[in-house]
Specification:
The protein is an alpha+beta fold and about 190 residues long. It has a 3-stranded antiparallel beta sheet with strand order 1-2-3, with helices on one face. A two-stranded antiparallel ribbon has the order 4-5.
């Protein structure tokens, strides 16, 4: 890290290589130093795995996903796309893993998702607000308060769009729905 900072101050070239998972620092004499780059922060990862995939599921994936995992995979496919050929030789897209992304790469990935939310009029979760809530030591099973209205809206929309999927989703997510009801009673209406 000190080498990188020194190199940046002196104006030396720093190249981030996602395949090697290294920063390559090129010195004026042509020597290249390889330093492992930082991974995304725990807060960024927690934000992606927590409210971001839930917000995607509850707003964008109405009736399209059965689980949060499906929503997560769709986000990866749209915003961290990889390509491979199937058995017939046709080029297919897939969601590349985000585990190998550098700190900068992961932030860019989150930025692409945020732009999509904003451009399409969806509510994007506030990462600082979410991290404050997580750091306040919520009870086991307690939901991020800002997600409760989205769950309510999702249930209403799914019931209107597809009665069968609605019944199946309610059966699978009964505990989530009960948590929303209990928290709404405990804390009152949450905007």
């Amino acid at each position: 890290m000190k080498t990188q900072l020194f190199a940046q101050k002196k104006g030396y070239k720093i190249i981030q290589d996602d395949h090697l998972k290294m920063d390559l620092v090129e010195w004026p004499d042509g020597t290249v130093i390889m330093k492992p780059y930082e991974k995304e922060s725990m807060e960024e990862r927690r934000f992606f795995e927590g409210p971001l995939k839930q917000y995607w599921f509850l707003q964008i994936g109405i009736g399209n996903h059965e689980t949060y995992v499906d929503a997560r995979e769709e986000m990866k496919e749209q915003f961290n796309t990889g390509y491979r050929r199937d058995k017939n030789g046709e080029l297919k897209t897939y969601g590349k893993s985000t585990k190998g992304l550098s700190n900068k790469g992961f932030r860019e990935f989150l930025g692409r998702i945020e732009r999509y939310f904003e451009e399409n009029g969806y509510i994007y979760p506030n990462s600082e607000d979410y991290n404050r809530w997580v750091n306040s030591a919520p009870l086991k099973g307690e939901l991020y308060p800002r997600i409760i209205p989205l769950v309510r809206n999702y249930i209403i929309m799914l019931n209107e769009v597809d009665k069968e999927k609605y019944k199946k989703w309610v059966k699978i997510n009964n505990k989530l729905i009960q948590n929303c009801i209990n928290q709404s009673k405990k804390y009152g209406k949450i905007n």
